[in-house]
Amino acid sequence: MSTPRPDLAAPHWLVQLLRSSPVPVPWNMVARAVAALAVPLAIAYAAGDIGVGALISTGALPAVLSESAGPYRYRARRLGGATLAATAGYLAGLLTGGTPALSVPAVVLVAAVSAVISAAGSNASVAGLQMLVFCVLATGQHATGVRVEILFGCFCLGAAWSLLVALVTWTVRATSPERTAVAHVYVELAAMLSATDEAVSRVARHRLTTAMNTAYDQLLTARSWLSGRDAAYRHLLNLLSATTPAVEASVAMVNAGRRPAREVIDHFVALSAAVLAAQPLPSPPPAPPGEPDPIVAALYAGLVRIGKGDDRKRRQPAPWHRRLREWAASLASGPLTWIAALRLTLCVAIAEAVGLLVPLERSYWITLTVGIVLKPDFGSVFGRAVLRGIGTVIGVGIGAAVLGLGANGWVLVALSAVFAGGIAVGKVRNYGIQSAFVTPLIILQMGLAHTGDGSVVLARLVDTVLGCVIVLVFGYLLWPGSRRPRVGGRLADGLDAVAKYVSHALVEASSGEARLARSRARRGAYRALADLRTAFQQAVVEPSAHGRQAVAWWPVIAAQERVADAVTEVGVTIGRGVPPPDPADVELLTAALGELASAVREQREPRSVPLPDAERLSGVVDQLESAFAAVRGPDLAERAPLGLVRRFLPHHRRT
């Protein structure tokens, strides 16, 4: 069965853009958002001044908007950094607001800093965004007539309250997120092995890859810094590492079109329950006597390996000065960060100029919209601008209805709680949903704290639309290279990762170090393929050549995944009565993958290369030939304009 390809018929890009991610409702995040934003309003209203509650709840917004699932230490660093950066930006905006000669340069400077520090990682990126957002927001607070020290004090109080709400259960649930992540791996293993349809099993394999990546990321982030709980983190990491052989054997079995015994699937479910409950692991089911199939034997051996665990060396955290040097090196290694910073700074400067020249009420929302939409590492600029506009229109309608009906008192508190919960759901489902709930919440906050009337509603709509127009015109349509494809270079990187996996997976791992290297190569290949899918999903929503060329690359992406699965199917049998393939054949496979990567980077058809004719490698060869056919396919013309990939990504190797 061929992998379905998206079809960018005229309205279909919008369907892709509005599609909601099918993930469960994050009830914990919903509860925390409601407590952080609605409780200050409730207490202040009970005390007789709901306006003060609105100012305090504004200080809780940075943590709510930056909230993310993960280990407590990770969340503490992410939320703490975002809140601290937002507080600094808010203070800068308060001190310069009301004086355009000071506020405009301050906002432009903060925008540039925000874009540059994004290269330091996801946490720094979120912190930079919050610093910009609340700097801009604070520049408009001078119109309230409230003293700066009172505004800043309320903001700090709300920020402290939101951090307390986010982290209050750390002392009793410190390892719960990591346990959940590891348990989810076993759930996805059971789901993949239970699938009866090829398309369903392939989706399940993608979900398994995501679960493995998430579990490793959380454990490697959380462990080794809390000495009292390091043993718990280390146990979970050893357990996850010991699961790798079972994962490889399961992928091999699915790729071969077989299904395991029901007892194997039930065992994975039982493992998930035991990990969640912190109970001893159940005993694995016995292997069938005299099992001749090496894949089945590898699967049962993998189940036994899970119970024994692995003994991994304790990872030492990198010192702060080394991380700082790596960030500085990333800034100097290529132009992408500086190009993104220049685009954001230019659009913010244009927004500030429009706010000064056009007599608009609360014109700082124009700059606010530009900063949020044009953040350099948050996906498609076009997609975020459209979703922001749609979400704001819906949110303004909701806010206008609330203010128009004259809701007050506890009704406003209840509505704020609903909007806060909607923000948490929108963060994991769809950016447009998040915007639709953020808008009425801020309308209520601004109305309660400032005017109390509906004038903010129309201003919010007009300013947001203007901000989106600035982004689409100056940051997308007129910006050089913004509509050019960027998937091709990443696809070539994925081919390199698969080639590295081939060189490790198709040789006999006679030592622990060799087995660890093979495991890392497998994780690297599948992670690269998962990242490639993410990049494709961000690009496919655009109705420009960028989106069309992303669609044209889709068969090549799918072919890479099938090559990796076929390699896994062969690799798990090595050492179980089956010798490894001839080294010369392995070299032919890696050379073929290298030729594909070179063809993608050099914008040409791949040359014909010799491939192994060994029976054992026939599955790998078949999938590799499909990959060659996909690169040479009828959509090659759509993928042709890749020159900017090489110009903007000079670190990619060319052969």
Structure write-up:
This protein folds into three domains: 22-173 and 338-481, no CATH class; 177-308, no CATH class; 484-637. It contains 26 helices and no strands. The longest helix has 28 residues, at 512-539. Mean pLDDT is 75; it is low at 1-11, 223-229, 311-315 and 634-655. Helix 2 (27-47) packs antiparallel against helix 3 (50-66), helix 5 runs antiparallel to helix 6 (122-139) and helix 14 (336-357) crosses helix 19 (455-477). The two termini are 34 Å apart. The chain is mainly alpha-helical and 655 residues long. The protein has helices spanning 12-18, 27-47, 50-66, 72-96, 100-117, 122-139, 148-167, 176-194, 198-222, 230-255, 262-277, 294-308, 320-333, 336-357, 364-373, 381-404, 410-429, 431-451, 455-477, 487-505, 512-539, 545-552, 554-571, 583-601, 618-631, 643-648.
Distance between the termini: 34 Å
- What is the total number of structural domains? 3
Q: Percent helix among the residues? A: over 70%
Which strand-content bin applies to the residues?
under 5%
Number of strands: 0
Mean pLDDT: 75
Write down the overall geometry.
Answer: globular
Low-confidence stretches: 1-11, 223-229, 311-315, 634-655
The oligomeric status of these chains comes to single chain
Membrane topology: Multi-pass membrane protein
Protein name: Membrane protein
Family: Belongs to the YccS/YhfK family.
Subcellular location: Cell membrane
Summarize the structure.
The chain folds into 3 domains: 22-173 and 338-481, no CATH class; 177-308, no CATH class; 484-637. The protein contains 26 helices and no strands. It has 655 residues and is an all-alpha fold.
